[in-house]
Each structure stands twice: as structure tokens, then as C-alpha cells.
Write the C-alpha cells for this entry.
Amino acid sequence: MSEQKEMSFWGHITELRGHMIRSLIAIVVCAIVVGFNVNWIMDNIFFGPTRNDFYTFRVVNHFSRELIGHDSITLPGNFAVQQKKLFEQFNVMMAVSIFGGIVAAFPYLIWELWRFISPALHPKERKNSVFVINFIWILFLLGILCGYFLILPFAINFSLLFKVSDTIVQLFDLTDYTTLFMQIVLGMGVVFLFPVLVYFTTSLGILTPKFMRTYRRHAIVLIMVVAAIITPADVLSMMMAALPLLLLYEFSILMCAYTFKKVEKRTLEEQRITPQ
């Protein structure tokens, strides 16, 4: 009996290793594709928020012209980025490729995770897990888009327009900009997975909607701290990050309430079926 359990355990380990290898291959393949197109990606995506024709700025200026008659956001014409280290561009290329590979392969990574855990689920649980799996990668990509189109442009706008003296020449470090880009974009992608954590903790009976409503004020303070960590030091970027996170928390309360009712209903059905 112990040998059968031991073989079953090592069988799961072998299966997990297979899923991890396939996931790693997917990341590497996507990273290679990004690497071969890195020039276009750097010019059009990576440095996109540094130009006046960026989508977010065009939308803001459109409404600004309708309301006050002129553009409210105008960036300097030249965003001067300098390289300080010998292999800095190569390191940035590798970082962008890996980052892009993870983002592009993320839906496949979640699918591999579902393939690993699905055999242990009941048919009803497996049906519900399909929704959860899709929900995870959709939330992650929404966080990525929120960070890229909503928070990053205003952080860059603040850093470019804020001056303490006109005699200072603005020269931006490539590594610093890369760190800022990934900190905001990837940080928002991870933080947007909070409803998933709420779903699983509620399903396990750890979290309740009453708890989330009771400690809403504490959560707001924590959200401000998280927004300050994700974004640079300026208040505008922090508020732009905090707003979607506050909405996400309210959405998580609704999800917690819905999941909690399902857990209570399932518990009552099990108690009804179980003989006294």
C-alpha cells in the first residue's frame, strides 16, 4: 500500500514537471518571438507612452479641447534616453523579451495549471474551474492594460513636466525607465489577481463578505500603500493606480458574497445528505 502511494506521489511529481517544462518552453518561444521583433516593440510599445500621439494622451486631449479649448497634456518633443553601461541595451532587450514572453504565454500557463489540477476535481468543480481559469488570465491582462494605458502615461507625463529649474537638462537612464515600465505594468497585472485570491479564500471558508465590508477602511489604506509601491512618488500616479484598485476591491466584495452563498448552500446540501 505504501509503495502504491509512493508511486502515486512520484507520478504526480513527474506530471507536474512535464507541465512546468511545457510552460517554460512556451515562455521561451514567446520571448524569442518578442526578441526578434524587439526594435518595433521598443519603438511602438515600450517608448509609446513618451510621445504625444500615444492613445491615452490623444483621448485626454480630445476631451480637453472640448472642455477648455486646448490640449492639457503636451510632452517635450524629444525623450532623451541614455545608455550608461556597456551591455545595458542588451540587458534591457533580454528583460523586455522575458517580460513579453511571460505576458504572451500567460493564458497558456494558466491552461497548463488547469490541466494539472483538473483530474483531481469533480465534474461540477471541473466545470466551474474553466470559468476561474479564464477569469485569472483575463484579470491579469486587464491589469497589464490598466498599468500601460492608465498609470504609466501619467507617471511619465509628471516626470517630464515637473522641473525645479529650467537650467536642468533632462536625460533619462534606460535601466531606470525599464524598471519603471515593468514595475507599473507587471505590478498592476499581479495586483489585479486579487479577486482570484478572494475567491479561493472564500471557497475554503477563510474569508467572508462581512469581514471585507467591516475592514473596508483598512483596505483603503492598504490599497494606497500598494499604489505608492507600484507607482513613482508623485501623487497623481498613485491616485490613478488607487482608483482601479478600489473598484477592484468593491468587485471582490461582490464576488466574495456570491461565493460565500454558494459555499453555504453546498454545506447545507451536504448536511442534508449526510445521515444523522
Observations:
- Residues 123-161 form the longest helix (39 residues).
- The beta strands are 81-82, 172-173.
- Confidence is low (pLDDT under 50) at residues 1-7.
- The chain has ten helices and two strands.
